[in-house]
Write a structure and sequence with these properties.
With 271 residues, the chain is α/β, with parallel strands linked by helices. Helix content is 35%, strand content 27%. The protein is built from eight helices and twelve strands. The strands form four sheets. A six-stranded mixed sheet has the order 6-5-9-10-11-12. A two-stranded antiparallel ribbon has the order 1-2. Strands 3-4 form a two-stranded antiparallel sheet.
């Protein structure tokens, strides 16, 4: 490979690090990729670290030891976080989103890459310092958001199903009580999906009473695994008494009035 100048190496190093969040990359990878000395790569990394830190775009951590190197952790500035959440609230306030039954149409939001990438970045930044093995979600609408969080944390996404599938092999199923309807429902997870003793976070699009989140907590116990955190896009405050306490949300929904106006605001639970 031809010799690259410093600006070119800095761009390349930044791309490699941000494409591999939470993955330790040995300096030899950079020296071989860019045909440069370790001293030059070290100086390049200092520039990348300083720029990302100053712009609240993430951090570069140094891992010592023979198997060490550097790794990237995502981040977002308070200004960008607040601006995005305000814009999301404005989208949700559109009266045209209210459908019969006083539900809010959200499919276009949940499958919009730009929106989900930013929402995922906020949630991932909240959980970035936890030693997470898996991001867990329940099929189906929350999958894009959970996938984005998993990608930014550099871990695998695990999808809990409402029913069993033959292709999943042996599964573990539990019954849980829906916090809103009080109906008994079932969720299942393949035994091969996660390893025992894993640390997980649960990500979903919407929380009403927290029954699903509580069910996930109990399901993970069957795998001798632990739920470290919960993150949701929208928290429905019409159901004030949640079955879970510690969770992060980006937006609070306080209801829809008789004229079809949606009362939605930035969440007090966003960090």
């Amino acid at each position: 490979m031809k010799k690259l100048n410093r600006n070119q190496r800095v761009i390349g190093i930044t791309k490699i690090l941000t494409d591999n969040p939470n993955k330790v990359i040995n300096l030899n990878v950079f020296t071989e990729t860019f045909n440069a000395a370790k001293s030059s790569i070290s100086e390049d990394l200092m520039i990348v670290r300083e720029v990302l830190h100053s712009m609240h775009m993430g951090s570069i951590e140094t891992i010592s030891g023979a198997a060490g190197g550097v790794k990237y952790k995502c981040d977002i500035s308070e200004e960008h976080k607040e601006r995005f959440i305000e814009e999301l609230c404005e989208l949700l306030k559109d009266t045209n989103r209210v459908v019969p039954g006083n539900f809010i149409y959200m499919t276009d939001i949940m499958y919009n890459p730009q929106i989900i990438q930013k929402a995922g970045l906020i949630l991932a930044s909240t959980f970035k310092d936890l030693e997470v093995d898996y991001v867990v979600t329940v099929e189906t609408k929350g999958i894009p958001l959970a996938y984005e969080v998993a990608k930014l944390l550099g871990v695998q996404l695990v999808i809990v199903r409402r029913d069993t599938k033959v292709t999943e092999g042996t599964t573990v199923s539990i019954n849980y009580v829906s916090g809103s309807s009080k109906r008994i429902q079932t969720m299942s997870l393949a035994k091969k999906a996660i390893k025992k003793g894993s640390k997980c976070i649960f990500v979903d699009d919407f929380m009403k009473a927290g029954g699903t989140a509580l069910g996930i907590t109990n399901l993970l116990k069957e795998f001798e695994s632990e739920l470290l955190g919960i993150g949701v896009l929208i928290d429905n405050l019409e159901t004030p008494n949640k079955l879970v306490e510690n969770y992060i949300s980006l937006v609070e929904l306080r209801g829809i009035d008789e004229e079809g106006s949606v009362n939605v605001n930035p969440s007090s639970r966003v960090e």
